[in-house]
Write a structure and sequence with these properties.
Blueprint: E1 2-6, H1 17-21, E2 28-31, H2 44-56, E3 60-65, H3 71-75, H4 80-96, E4 101-105, E5 116-120, E6 126-131, H5 132-136, H6 143-148, H7 161-164, H8 167-173, H9 179-200, E7 203-207, H10 225-234, E8 240-245, H11 246-249, H12 257-263, E9 268-273, E10 276-280, E11 283-286, H13 298-307, E12 313-316, H14 334-354
Parallel strand pairs: 1-2, 1-12, 2-3, 3-4, 4-7, 7-8, 8-9, 9-12
Antiparallel strand pairs: 5-6, 6-11, 10-11
The structure holds D-mannose.
Length: 355
């Protein structure tokens, strides 16, 4: 595995590449061209400039999170081919630039969903949290309003104000999209891009839906072992793979995370590893990465990744806000650095145990 950190670019991130370079064990970053919109073709010079900036800081660009999917592709509207062609051009350019892992998601309307961005934990840290009761009581159009005050002045990916201004319209556009239709549209998209992925050796890594169930009645399909294995089979190409995100699949306590990892041998191209603490099965908050701070056995998760021979980039995921840091919720430096060191430590122990 390669330990990495997500980095939002010098224009948007409060964390610098220099700081990331000083976290022991972290050798790369995961980034994207922030400021581009889904459906747009990425310019080669922008891709190369991003890569150069990262390499000049002594790190590698270990993959892209995300090249986002235009709604026409998810909905399956008549103009989808145009956007798929654009996606393919972007993939070709990434391949030519030597980038081989692309994370994306297939969630309608909302990317990941939380009801609180700064819930206080007993130690005084603040974390992202989710309560189903709060979602049930909320008008989806008010979702953005209700959390935007806690974004610390940052623009959180998936929650861009321009996108949120169109929530009503987006709900209307998705009204005939069922789970089955979403599966079909995903299959169509993947079949069209796989030749390019084969040519440039690009590993596509779908991010799970977070939380792993339907919110506001919208279809959500990347949620459990059955569905993800169906997806792997429906386009049976090793480049059609997944981002294994423990915090997203883990929202559903019925998902057995180490078992899911083992069943995806050869198809996990990227891993997000973080812990959650459950108060009830539908109320959870994001804990420190340490096993004992939350619900998951992080050792077992790392061991399962080791057992399947995982070699891709991995990153600690959302961190708590600690030590008075002011940053994008979930994406400060301090707690993610602690997370990276902890996961690297687990990995070292597992490797030594096996040798
Ligand atoms: C949240 C992230 C997601 C993820 C996208 C991938 O912090 O895990 O926004 O990057 O869903 O496309």
């Amino acid at each position: 595995m390669q330990m990495t950190l997500r980095w939002y670019g010098s224009k948007y991130d409060t964390v610098t590449l220099k700081q990331i370079r000083q976290i022991p064990g972290v050798t790369g970053v995961i980034s994207t061209l922030y400021g581009t919109t889904p459906g747009e073709v990425w310019e080669m010079e922008d891709i190369l400039a991003l890569k150069k900036e990262i390499e000049d800081a002594g790190l590698t660009l270990a993959g892209i999170e995300s090249v986002n999917i235009h709604d026409a592709i998810k909905i399956g509207s008549p103009d989808r081919d145009k956007y798929i062609d654009n996606y393919i051009t972007t993939l070709e350019r990434l391949g030519q630039a030597g980038i081989h892992m692309v994370c994306y998601n297939f969630m309608p309307v909302f990317d990941w969903t939380r009801t609180e961005l700064a819930r206080m934990r007993p130690d005084g840290s603040t974390v992202l949290a989710y309560t189903q009761e709060a979602v049930d009581a909320l008008d989806p159009e008010k979702m953005f309003e209700s959390i935007s005050g806690d974004m610390n002045g940052t623009v959180m990916p998936g929650w861009e104000p321009e996108r949120m201004a169109r929530v009503k319209e987006l709900f209307e556009m998705y009204k005939d999209v069922t789970d089955e239709k979403l599966f079909d549209n995903l299959k169509y998209f993947l079949e069209r891009i796989m030749p390019t992925c084969d040519k440039y050796d690009i590993n596509m890594a779908i991010h799970p839906d977070d939380p792993a169930w339907s919110v506001f009645g919208l279809p959500r399909i990347i949620i459990n072992k059955t569905n993800i294995l169906r997806m792997m089979k429906m386009v049976d190409n090793p480049h059609n793979g997944v981002t294994f995100c423990s915090g997203s699949y883990g929202t559903n306590l019925e998902n057995d995370l180490p078992d899911m990892i083992r069943s995806l041998k050869g198809r996990i191209h990227f891993a997000h590893v973080r812990n959650l603490k459950f108060n009830t099965p539908t109320d959870f908050e994001e804990a420190a990465h340490l096993s004992s701070d939350g619900t998951f056995d992080m050792y077992e998760i790392m061991r399962a990744l080791y057992d399947i021979g995982f070699t891709g980039p991995i990153r600690p995921d959302h961190g708590r806000m600690i030590w008075d840091e002011v940053a994008m919720p979930g994406y400060g430096l301090y707690d993610r650095a602690l997370g990276a060191c902890y996961l690297t430590g687990l990995w070292e122990a597992i490797v030594k145990q096996h040798n």
